[in-house]
Amino acid sequence: MKLPVKRGRILADSNLVSIGDIAFQLIVFFMVAATFTRSTSMNVELPSGDDNAVQDDSRSITVQAGAKAIAVNEQALELDQLEPKLRELLNGRTEGADRVVVLVTGDDIPFQRHAAIMHIIRASGGVVAVMYEEEGG
Amino acid sequence: MRLQLRRAALLRDSSLVSMGDIAFQLIVFFMVTTTFMRDSTQVDLPRLPISDKTESPISVAIDAAGKLHLDGQPVDTSGSLESQLRTLLEGKTTTEDRQVRFRCDANLIQKNYRSAMEAISNAGGVIAVMHDPESNP
Questions:
Q1: What is the rounded CA–CA span in Å between residue B132 and residue B45?
Q2: Which of A21, A39, A51, B31 could pair with A47 in a Cys bridge, judged by C-beta atoms 3.0 to 4.6 Å apart?
């Protein structure tokens, strides 16, 4: 009669050990899951300095953006008007080179706004080419 | 006496099984934490709708103070960043392989992050702008 009582105690100890094990597994799982949800990105190409093909093309679309103002082919508009305007301009253009939208940004533009405009260009079917406004030009 | 010997043998078996378990847990834990160390720089990423995903192991970060980091290590100048990136990207030909995770603070203005973007591009990298997923209203 004495022996079964002792064996029962051993089993109870094992359960306590596995609680720590399960807790650790859950910590690792949530750490990994959190990494996956944050790994979203958007690819951007910067044209090289000697690549003038994009600039010389009369059909090219240019978006100029600063901290507050935004313009498409020198026509000022609001940020929420950008996507419909680009969709209209890109309509019927199927080739990759035809779909390039040159984004020229001023040095005062915050990264949040810069990234949001790049995202709008991609969402409207354009291929983003980032360029910078030259200082004093 | 015979009964005590059996119990001792039983306990020894349990220890051997859990040792393997613990070793495996430690391997997983260090693998996960190593992944986190790569992106350890605290950055307030821009919020955008989900676009792409990247698995690139190379990470360039710019924190709120405008300081440059390559794979979690501080880098003094964009010139140094470019040369280190050239070494890391050597022999990589596909777009996926040439992707560089670009983690930039959302509130920084272009003056602070432009040189880093140019350094990635000049080194032959494809900029993968990392962002947090925008929460739907």
A1: 6
A2: A51
Mutation site, B43, B44, B109, B135, interface A, largest A CB count within 10 A = B109
**Tokens 């990494």 -> residue:** A35
Distance from the A44 Cα atom to the nearest Cα atom in chain B, whole angstroms: 5
Across the interface, of A3, A48, A114, the residue whose CB is closest to B3 is A3
Q: What is the ipTM of this complex?
A: 0.71
Q: Which residues of A56-77 are buried (b: 16+ CB within 10 A; e: fewer)?
A: eeeebbbbbbbeeebebeeeee
Q: How many CA atoms lie within 13 A of A89 on its CB side?
A: 23
The answer to whether the predicted template modeling score (pTM) of the entire model surpasses 0.90 is: no
Task: Give mean pLDDT in consecutive 10-residue pieces for chain B, a chain of 137 residues.
Answer: 53 66 82 70 78 81 91 90 93 88 91 92 89 70
Tokens of A83: 């996507």
Contact B129 A48 (CB under 8 A): no
